[in-house]
Specification:
The protein is an all-alpha fold. It has a domain at about 15-60. The chain is built from 6 helices and no strands. The longest helix has about 30 residues, at about 25-55. The N and C termini lie far apart (about 95 Å).
Length: about 140
């Protein structure tokens, strides 16, 4: 029986992994650290699953209630603070659109731009092919 077990684990003519990797230290470290990380992960998963099974018999109502309370506080805070910010965000969008129009030469000409170029053409003429949301005219 002992001989059968020795034969089972005998490497015989197999090469060692180090020979396969040509004993390149970086490559050996890479495989060793990857194998260790995978092994430790399997152990951690097993322990976590075991803890989960054991915890099924315990009630975690206080913990669950605390998490719900924190979520409720965050939700109510968001609901109270968000509505006043809507007009400000709309102003930011309008300002960005106006800035894009100015960069592209679209929109209504200002006094300074009409003095600089009197033959600029009708306002918004160059922007007709742009999407409607980009145009302010």
């Amino acid at each position: 029986m002992l001989e059968a077990i020795k034969k089972l684990f005998d490497t015989g003519d197999f090469m060692s992994p180090g020979d396969c990797y040509r004993w390149n230290p970086a490559l050996v470290r890479l495989h060793l650290s990857s194998d260790l990380a995978i092994g430790l992960s399997y152990v951690a998963i097993s322990l976590t699953f075991g803890a989960f099974i054991i915890a099924q018999g315990r009630s975690a109502y206080w913990f669950s209630g605390a998490i719900k309370f924190i979520t409720a506080v965050a939700s109510v805070t968001t609901a109270v603070l968000l509505p006043p910010l809507v007009p400000k965000s709309e102003e930011l969008v309008r300002g960005a659109e106006l800035s894009a129009d100015r960069k592209l030469g679209c929109g209504r000409p200002t006094e300074s731009s009409s003095k600089k170029s009197s033959n600029a053409g009708a306002p918004g003429r160059r922007c007709e092919s742009l999407p409607r949301s980009w145009r302010t005219v």
